[in-house]
Each structure stands twice: as structure tokens, then as C-alpha cells.
């Protein structure tokens, strides 16, 4: 069972990772390869009998980000895609959601590996390579600071304004949960 502390840790990591600044051109090629590796790794993981052994459900659980919507291509006139949005593509918003997803799955796997496992050694051997790829991706996509102090301060100021709003929301949520009113 995941504790309140573990849940709070997961929330904090997601919020920390939810800054969205584009990846530099020099990291783009590495990023593309790592995301391809991640897809192949997760596909193989799901095909392995170790993790999903005896589970017949096809249900899917995903993080609560807006990655599908935020990273959808720009709308075109003749497109039949249902998931396209009505606004233009914003690269930083897409990256913010991708980073939040990476943080979510990294912590979720970490917490899972600390739980009561059916086959600890096999499951750890299966999931650790996934975490390694995720952590490498998080390092590549986290390079948001450059050598220009003004641009860095500008980004940090915007980041802190957004974090201030998140802190207000978190404070309200924690006070509400602590009051017990949601149980009535």
C-alpha cells in the first residue's frame, strides 16, 4: 500500500517536473533515440510474462497530464483526427506534459518496486531498465537553464509565479483533506 508520504512525494516530483522548456537542438537526436528506446522497452515489458502474469484485464491507467492534447499536431483543414485541438501547437506545453509524465512513471515504478512483489528479483530486473531510460530522458529534457542570466531569471520568475498558484492549490487541498469535510 502506498503511504500518504509516498503520494505526496509523487505529487511534488510531478510538480517539479512540470516545467516545460524545449530541448536544445544538440539534445534533440539523443532525445529521439531515448524515446524510441523507451517505447521498445515498454513494449517488450508488456509482452513479458513476468509483470502481467495472470492478469486478463486490458484496462489502462495513465497519468493525469494533458500530454495527448498538448502534444497533438496542429489542426489541418482536411484532417479526420478526433484528438486534434482547436489551438496552435505550443512546444513548451507539450514538453511540460511529457516531463510530468516521465516524473510520474519514474516515481510510480520506484514505489512499486518498494511494495510487496510477486517475484521481486524478476520484476526489478524487468522494470529497472525502464527507470534508467526514463531518468536519462529526464536529464536530457531538464536542461532548461542557459548561460544568459536574464533569460534564466525570466524563466525562473515565470516558474515561481506558476508554482505560487500550485502552492495555493496544494495548500487549499491539504487543508480540505485535513479538515475531513470530504468524508461527510
Automatic annotation (TrEMBL):
GO cellular component terms attached to this protein's record: extracellular space
Listed GO biological process terms: immune response
InterPro entries (UniProt xref): 4_helix_cytokine-like_core, IL-12_alpha
Keywords: Cytokine, Disulfide bond, Growth factor, Secreted, Signal
Top-rank taxon: Eukaryota
Database matches in Pfam families: IL12
Residues spanning the membrane: none
Cleavable signal peptide: 1-20
GO molecular function term, any single one: growth factor activity
Localization (cell): Secreted
Similarity-based family: Belongs to the IL-6 superfamily.
Subunit structure: Heterodimer with IL12B; disulfide-linked. The heterodimer is known as interleukin IL-12.
Protein name from the UniProt record: Interleukin-12 subunit alpha
Gene from which this protein is expressed: il12a
